[in-house]
Amino acid sequence: xxxxxxxxxxxxxxxxxxxxxxxxxxxWVNGLTSEPIRxxxxxxxEKAIRMVSPEFDNQPVQEQYELSxxxxxxxxxxxxxKEGKLLGVAIETFSMKGFNGEVRLMLGLKPDGTIxxxxxxxxxxxxxxxxxxxxxxxxxxxxQSILNKDPGKDKVWVAKDGGDIDAITAATIxxxxxxxxxxxxxxxxxxxxxxxxxxVTTATIEEKEAQNEEE
Length: 215
Fold this sequence. Notes:
single chain, alpha+beta, 5-stranded antiparallel β-sheet, 39% helix, globular
């Protein structure tokens, strides 16, 4: 086999051929893995929905719709039904105020907005401290639990800020982020449902304080 002459043109041809082969290989691998990854993500989502909701017989993932929070961000809402009756919703919500960034939850709400349950989907908080959010806010001890709370009537923010909820020990920032994600989902859902006009939450308090400062 004749050896290719060492020239700039031939180098370009060889590199181009390698690039094409590599791109084709990557595309083939992506085609093999994209569907399993998508199905795994849906399965994880469905599991979280079941964890925060009463028993249902509809297909929440197929019936999902979008909500906008008070900052214009997109939240995904999954209706929970049984025999055609709405039992509540599961909302994928988040906060970027965690000690190490994003905290993402699946929050289950009853039709009136009362908190049914929650599941932590993503967090990178400090092990042994902020990571306790996975169970802290559903533990029936002192004033930790948010379950069966109505954020429109109850002060669902940390006691240090005048609320009714005990923050995770030595993890107040994480606790604020967690409750910010809860607040975000609750407000978006109630505004969409149109059943609450004056919702008192940490966010509305911040808004009112900002307005007072401007005045």
